[in-house]
Specification:
single chain; 145 residues; mainly alpha; 0% strand
Length: 145
């Protein structure tokens, strides 16, 4: 089995699980941090999340790119497009709100962060279902041989 494909699957599933945790627990939890502690909390959050997501996101982008180049199929072009859209959403929707939260707690910005995180949640979820489906179809075809 292709190592790049396994890296892609693992990165996708990891990031999908992580984004659901962030969407349902972590970002709503911002509302419970005191105004006084929020700047320090957010600085810690940003540093910590950077370490947790940077390598998997880069692995996901690199492996998706390699798969699209290697297989040159509609499936892997769609796969890569979903990854690129996730990066675009991160850069255009999430990063600006985190930059605003660096200055202190703002319930409206937290609400925006939660709402604008849904596209990333959807994209990673869809990608995970697609790549798992691909693996299942591969396994099914191997069993028939």
């Amino acid at each position: 089995m292709n190592v790049v494909l396994i890296i892609n699957l693992c990165a996708s599933l990891y990031l999908a699980g992580l984004i659901w945790t962030i969407q349902l627990v972590h970002y709503p939890g911002f509302n419970y941090i005191s105004k006084k502690s929020f700047k320090d909390f957010h600085r810690m959050h940003t540093r910590g999340m950077g370490l947790i997501v940077a390598i998997p996101m880069i692995a996901e982008l690199a492996s998706s790119t390699l798969l699209a180049i290697r297989f040159q199929s509609v499936f892997f072009y769609i796969n890569l497009t979903l990854v690129i859209l996730t990066w675009v959403c991160t850069g255009l929707l999430s990063v600006p709100r985190h930059q605003r939260l660096q200055h202190g707690k703002d319930k409206n910005v937290i609400k925006e962060l939660i709402l604008t995180n849904y596209p990333r949640t959807a994209l990673w979820t869809i990608r995970s279902f697609l790549i798992v489906g691909y693996f299942l179809s591969m396994e099914s075809s191997l069993l028939k041989q």
